[in-house]
Amino acid sequence: MNSIAVSLIVLTCVFGGAGCGILLSRALSQNHLSAESKDVVRMGMGLVSTMAALVLGLLVSSAKSFYDAQSTELTQVSAKIILLDRLLAHYGPETKEARDLLRRTVADGIDKVWPQERAQPSRLGAPPASHEDLIAKIQALSPKDDRQRSIQIQALSTVMDLTQTRWLMYEQEASSVSKPILVILIFWLTAIFISFGLFAPPNATVMTALFVAGLAVSGAIFLILEMYAPFGGLIEISSAPLRATVTQLGH
Prior knowledge:
Elements lengths: L2 H25 L7 H57 L4 H18 L16 H10 L6 H27 L6 H20 L5 H24 L12 H9 L3
Helix pairs in contact: 1-6, 1-7, 2-3, 2-5, 2-6, 2-7, 2-8, 3-4, 4-5
């Protein structure tokens, strides 16, 4: 779901609704625009505004929680990668091939998720096959004593946890805003702006205020959609934890 396109659609709907409200006020008779009618419309739209504010607040909160969860999981992955590399280093020189594979896997993952050429697609893909190769290499180790056997078990447990977390992040990436909820919210917001225009004097100050309000609402929708795409949007999670991890591997 393209966040910029959706936010522009929202801006068009709400500001267009305000314009339709102004045009509608000219077409209606004075009886429809009486003080009593205005009070009823205000009460009805007040209820709609309350519901829209609640839903919008819940969506922002949910999107922020999702973004924070992905950021936290990325930091955990970075820490587990360093731990795995240290465990393999303590095992002995027999793990050099596995450590090199680990470093290549992390470096390739950074290039895919945060490509240097921004024209390239950026997304968090499924864990590569090298994860399974790494597990196989650790399982193939032949411990010579209890110390190496203990390190092998810890390394296997760590790489399993690492793979599980990566699959969890991949599956979570499919999460997004429910389209029916988004459509209903846009409908509510458009109705609210129609009521604004219905009783607003058509002057430059009013139109500017309505446009700024429309920008604010569409900006909120933009933020929600962007936070649901933390690895491919404008508000992306920093690659700093993983890049710092790469510098620690192999030492």
